[in-house]
Amino acid sequence: MEFDKTLSFDREAEILKVLGHPVRLKIVAGLMSQSCNVKKIWECLELPQATVSQHLALLKNKHIIQGQRDGVEVFYHVVSEEARKVVAALLGPRP
């Protein structure tokens, strides 16, 4: 077996680290099916708004999700295809 020393997996490793937290994994999984605002996310997860906002900020900073302003609300959606693939592989087919 040989390893290719020229390959860099920095981005992939970063995505895995970020998605390694259950709350962030739930957020990304939920946003894969529909865009949501912060209020809907924290209501669905039954977590404090501040907690959800911290997780959203990290996901945004790592370019996994993106927010789109609609009036006073910001709706989030997944922009990272790599993250989509990882979550889909972890969760498998859903009924």
State the main characteristics.
single chain, about 100 residues, alpha+beta, Arc Repressor Mutant, subunit A, 3-stranded antiparallel beta sheet, 3 strands
Description:
It is a single chain. By secondary structure, the protein is α+β, with helices and mostly antiparallel strands. It has a single domain, classed as Orthogonal Bundle (Arc Repressor Mutant, subunit A). The chain has 5 helices and 3 strands, in the order H-H-E-H-H-E-E-H. Strands 1-3-2 form a 3-stranded antiparallel β-sheet. Helix 2 packs across helix 5 (81-91). This is Metalloregulator ArsR/SmtB family transcription factor. InterPro entries: ArsR-like_HTH, HTH_ArsR_DNA-bd_dom, Metal_resp_trans_reg, WH-like_DNA-bd_sf, WH_DNA-bd_sf.
